User: Which sequence fits this backbone?
């Protein structure tokens, strides 16, 4: 009797395993109890939650080189939108979706910047949330990953080395590209080249002209603008002055793009770190220009 | 020679014509500013740990010879100064004897309406934020207890309308009230249209309807110059914290300090912070619930406030933090301050002394010892004034 029952359960499990769940990012089939996708390593919880709502979530990505401030930007953005009682509101779906904002704000409250995001996709912070905005009658499901800058540029330099990034950029409805405003101001040309590489990579993705990045919204955000305040006055003019190559490629290849400036720390000091040179220390938290790029992306979502 | 050349350049760049009467004031001012007893001594006293004996009794300020204009001209100058909010200058020992009883009464009324007295006492200016969840066992570390002498602090931050008086009277041209080290940078202290004034003004004027908003876009040096022009100074860190936390000392117990001017718990309805206000500065008269025990408004939120001190170098060194440039202390948080723990009476922050930010303003202070607490009746110029028996001004205010 007991043996018969056990056989029945096993067959149930086998049948269950036969019904594979596609990864939300790369569409690869995975077993129902898989924690992360066997192909791209994206967390499968995203697929389970999206499956329960039966709607494809909107995806935005924050892109930029390592140390540009992607984690701080996303963490503070999510925290602001989940706390403000105004027109644009985010509600986290699942405890894991709160981790990014929690860890970011906890670090800032200690007058530290959050630690570097690891390169492994299964260790990134993924956010699944619901967006409520006046433009949408129903709450919009949304997925935002906090990707590692080094992994991103590995993928740009060697396409398909990070399958999750390749799949995500193909699926994204819009991107926020962060550019270090202070480095541009100090005359560094690296930021200009990094961003041009990234934009060139996007333009070459996909063969369907209707789904190309030329028509998808791209928000270009000068981060750390609190330390180069002229960014805030006219970000587009700032781009022309300090990153002419970037400015030109945007005008030629991206029909829907806009420059923004954002800052989180009102002022910074430095602290020597053994083997890592000088580390920036945020003296206070006063977010500025954080919500505007995201709001613009939401307004420019394809119908 | 260099100074006169700089002065000439400044004049040629200033589009604002000076008031002829007020143009005489810098000659008076130089001597009075230099005779300030509290500005420097308060700072020294504030940084002396309480274990050491406090500074000796207040010395009488050194009197300087002032060539006073004719009586009628004095009256017009006094009226002008009162209209400009420069009452603190008139209450200096050097000038008070020139005032009629009526003028003295008006001046004292202006002082009591514009400033409130913070009594002398001890204060702790460094208290770490509440420990995080991971660190609940760690006790909050406190800095040394400091003694602060009695002083007056502006009830409200300096407003655009008040600062306009300084700009319109050629304050940016009066080199006597500016630190010599900053003279080369004076030509950079211009508004959006190139006129001398705060960064966000246009054509030497503040935005319409913002007259009661705190002035912003001013560097620490501009704040200092304005405070000198009004006969005041910037408060020290210790003074600022004392006005907000209003310490109570009970023998045998640690000093009782408020975390916020209104108590121990954050109440966003009492301060213009991120999420509780319109996301920009508001009139200094808004958020009346944020008043301190002593009657000082708007210490928390709306704008950070410059203080006279450098950014706690001892605390910065202790944690290995190095500052990139000369940074001056700011206190109180602003309309965009995001974290509650950074909008307390004790949170110490800083910015570059030359920074002209959208959320940093200031308020002024004056030491009690810099004001004439009693007028010498033998020096009274009129019969009316001789009949007056002067009582201690400080006693009345207290």
Assistant:
């Amino acid at each position: 009797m007991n043996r018969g029952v056990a056989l029945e359960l096993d067959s149930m499990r086998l049948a269950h395993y036969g019904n594979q769940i596609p990864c939300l990012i790369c569409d690869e089939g995975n077993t129902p109890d898989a924690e992360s996708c066997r192909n791209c390593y994206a967390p499968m919880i995203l697929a389970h939650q999206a499956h329960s709502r039966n709607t494809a979530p909107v995806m935005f990505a924050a892109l930029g080189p390592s140390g540009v401030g992607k984690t701080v930007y996303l963490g503070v953005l999510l925290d602001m939108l989940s706390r403000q009682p105004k027109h644009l509101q985010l509600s986290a779906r699942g405890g894991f979706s709160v981790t990014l904002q929690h860890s970011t704000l906890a670090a800032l409250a200690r007058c530290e910047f959050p630690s570097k995001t690891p390169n492994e996709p299964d260790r990134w912070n993924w956010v699944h949330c619901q967006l409520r905005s006046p433009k949408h009658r129903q709450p919009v499901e949304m997925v935002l990953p906090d990707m590692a800058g080094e992994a991103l540029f590995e993928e740009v330099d060697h396409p398909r080395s990070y399958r999750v990034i390749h799949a995500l950029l193909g699926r994204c409805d819009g991107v926020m590209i962060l550019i270090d405003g202070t480095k541009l101001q100090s005359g560094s040309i690296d930021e200009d080249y990094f961003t041009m590489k990234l934009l060139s990579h996007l333009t070459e993705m996909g063969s369907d002209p209707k789904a190309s990045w030329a028509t998808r919204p791209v928000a270009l955000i000068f981060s750390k603008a609190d330390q180069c305040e002229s960014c805030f006055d006219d970000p587009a003019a700032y781009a022309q002055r300090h990153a002419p190559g970037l400015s030109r490629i945007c005008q030629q290849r991206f029909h829907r793009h806009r420059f923004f400036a954002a800052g989180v720390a009102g002022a910074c000091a430095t602290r020597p770190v053994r083997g890592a040179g000088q580390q920036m220390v945020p003296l206070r938290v006063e977010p500025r220009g954080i919500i505007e790029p995201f709001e613009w992306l939401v307004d420019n979502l394809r119908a | 020679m260099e100074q006169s050349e700089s002065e000439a350049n400044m004049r040629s760049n200033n589009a604002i014509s000076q008031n002829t009467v007020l143009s005489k004031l810098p000659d008076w001012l130089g001597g009075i500013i230099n005779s300030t007893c509290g500005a420097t001594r308060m700072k020294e006293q504030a940084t002396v740990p309480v274990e050491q004996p406090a500074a000796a009794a207040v010395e009488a300020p050194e009197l300087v010879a002032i060539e006073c204009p004719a009586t009628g001209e004095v009256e017009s100058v006094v009226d002008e100064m009162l209209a400009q909010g420069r009452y603190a200058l008139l209450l200096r020992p050097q000038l008070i004897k020139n005032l009629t009883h009526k003028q003295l009464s008006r001046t004292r009324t202006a002082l009591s309406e514009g400033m409130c007295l913070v009594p002398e006492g001890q204060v702790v200016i460094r208290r770490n934020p509440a420990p995080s969840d991971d660190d609940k066992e760690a006790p909050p570390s406190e800095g040394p207890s400091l003694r602060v002498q009695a002083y007056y602090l502006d009830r409200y931050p300096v407003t655009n309308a008040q600062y306009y008086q300084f700009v319109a009277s050629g304050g940016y041209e009066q080199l006597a009230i500016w630190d010599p080290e900053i003279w080369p940078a004076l030509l950079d202290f211009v508004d959006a249209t190139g006129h001398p004034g705060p960064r966000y003004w246009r054509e030497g004027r503040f935005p319409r309807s913002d007259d009661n908003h705190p002035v912003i876009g001013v560097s620490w040096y501009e704040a200092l110059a304005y405070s000198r022009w009004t006969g005041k100074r910037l408060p020290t860190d210790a003074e600022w914290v004392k006005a907000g936390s209003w310490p109570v000392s009970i023998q045998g117990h640690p000093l009782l300090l408020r975390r916020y001017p209104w108590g121990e718990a954050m109440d966003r309805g009492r301060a213009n912070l991120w999420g509780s206000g319109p996301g920009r500065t508001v009139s200094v008269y808004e958020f009346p619930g944020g008043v301190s025990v002593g009657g000082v408004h708007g210490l928390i939120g709306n704008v950070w406030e410059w203080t006279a001190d450098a950014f706690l170098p001892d605390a910065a060194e202790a944690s290995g933090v190095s500052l990139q440039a000369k940074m001056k202390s700011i206190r109180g948080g602003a309309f965009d301050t995001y974290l509650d723990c950074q909008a307390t009476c004790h949170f110490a922050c800083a910015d570059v002394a030359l920074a002209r930010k959208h959320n940093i303003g200031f308020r002024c202070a004056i030491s009690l010892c810099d004001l004439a607490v009693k007028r010498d009746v033998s020096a009274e110029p009129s019969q009316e004034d001789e009949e007056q028996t002067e009582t201690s001004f400080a006693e009345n205010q207290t």
